[in-house]
Amino acid sequence: MNWLDPLKGESFHSYAMRMADLMVTDTPLTIIGISFGGMVAQEIARFRKVKQIILISSVKSRSEMPLYMRVAGALKLNKLFPVKVVQRSDRIYKIANRRLGAYTPEEQEFANVYRKTANLNYIHWSFDKILNWRNLNGTATAITHIHGSKDQVLPIKYIKADYVIEGGTHMMAWNRAEEISRIINKVTGSDGRYL
To answer: Which branch of life, at top level (predicted)?
Structure first.
């Protein structure tokens, strides 16, 4: 699914409901969420029948976020973050790419194109939702968590993962896709063939 543009002042719950409306089946689905998408998947599971959630490079609750994210959210530091300046800074791209684990030219290009073309409204809104997400009650839906041992954005030391990809970074869905696919196939009981 593609991300929707958030509406002005939209809550995370409302956004998740609009995302869920894009799912055109009543059959309980397996939702795979990468990074922020994992948080969205868990929000969707609050009001939609979901068979299972597979998180990749994400968190299950605020307690799995690094301290700097929790403090930034509490102090609303994201409101001061100059996203527009960051979108135009090659120097910041280099720093961000290292933290993401985007090392090859292809990975860096992928990350840089996303940063350059991302909707500013969406970026501001999603930063706020990420930094202030609680998920204190969790979800009744079964969750399988796949995480990289070298993730610098969401460090493994805070995460209770079911599967750890040794050397995996926050970009591992891109550069370790084969390993992750094997885990997904095992967890879902799939033979790897999809419609």
So the answer is: Bacteria
Phi-psi region of 192 (alpha: psi -120 to 50; beta: other; left: phi over 0): left
State how many domains the chain has. Answer: 1
Task: Supply 64's token pair.
Answer: 């799995």
Q: Whole-structure pTM over 0.90, yes or no? A: no
- Measure CA 96 to chain center: 16
d(CA 31, CA 122): 21
Amino acid at 29: L
| Concatenated DSSP letters of 164-186 | EETT--TTHHHHSHHHHHHHHHH
Q: Distance (Å, rounded) from C-alpha 55 to C-alpha 195?
A: 21
| Residue 123 amino acid letter | I
**CATH number of the CATH domain containing 48:** 3.40.50.1820
